[in-house]
Amino acid sequence: MATQVAIVTGASSGIGHATALRLKSAGFTVYAGARRVERMKDLSDAGIQTVDLDVTDDTSMVGLVDRVIAETGRIDVLVNNAGYGAFGALEDVPNAEGRRQFDVNVFGLARMTQLVLPHMRAGKSGRIINMSSMGGRIYEPLGSWYHATKFAVEGMSDSLRLEVSPFGIHVVLIEPGGMNTEWGAIAADSLIAASAGTAYADQAPGVAKMLRSVDGKARPSSSPDRIAKAVTRAATARRPKVRYLLGPGAKPLVALHTILPNRVFDRMMARVFQTPR
């Protein structure tokens, strides 16, 4: 059997970086894409093909897929991991920033999927593994744009799953909870900057504290490698789960959102994030 081929986006750090290494260890030929190629030297040293990839640049994405097909003739797994979160009140965050989050988190994911699907359909198999979040199932204050992108990824993935199932292609959602990565600090910094001097400045410190506490390990969190293991299971299982909800607190919070009235859940989240109501 020919070696299976995987593409991982956003592979310069965190989950994407760990996923590229895990898939390589599982026997895949791995193409790891990111803008910060200099941060992927260890992946290159491990035998992973590292590629300069910008998921907001169509030429960049087309070039990667064309290269993979030219060199291997197949694409078996796409891990759409590239993404980020810039927090702030909807009133304060410029629409241009909201569009950029959608460009990276949603439209980049969609375009990469469009590019690989013809090759997966030709092979009558494949895995599209989309990095969502617990934040695609619940919500936080001052995270309107980020949560909107992740809710969009959830809906897009569910519809896509039905579309491509007849061709032997599986669509999987990975939904991490709190993560021990640089993500939280970056989101917290963007939140404080966006909220300075605004009507929402009083809410920002509590939310930023929660975002940063994962990086500082002040509350339970998952390591990128734990999520990478789940991605690898999704890539190799004969019948993968539709959703992998992972991380401390993720399952209880999503369950509470499901069973509690919305107003009750709102009050609970306001207390958790120390925001006034």
Residues in helices, as a percent range: 40-55%
Q: Main sheet?
A: 7 strands, parallel
Listing every helix as H and every strand as E from the N terminus to the C terminus, the arrangement reads: EHEHEHEHEHEHHHEHH
Strand order of the largest sheet: 3-2-1-4-5-6-7
Return residue spans where pLDDT drops below 50 for at least 5 consecutive residues.
Answer: none
- Characterize the overall form: globular
Hey, roughly how much beta strand do the residues contain?
5-15%
| Helix/strand/pairing category | alpha/beta
Mean pLDDT: 93
Count every beta strand, where a strand is a DSSP E run of 2 or more residues: 7
Terminal residue distance: 60 Å
Number of helices, where a helix is a run of at least 4 consecutive DSSP H or I residues: 10
From the alpha carbons, calculate the radius of gyration and give it in angstroms: 19 Å
Describe this structure in words.
- With 277 residues, the chain is an alpha/beta fold.
- 51% of the residues lie in helices and 13% in strands.
- The protein has a seven-stranded parallel sheet, sandwiched between helices.
- Helix 2 links the parallel strand 2 and strand 3.
- The protein is globular, with a radius of gyration of 19 Å.
- The mean pLDDT is 93.
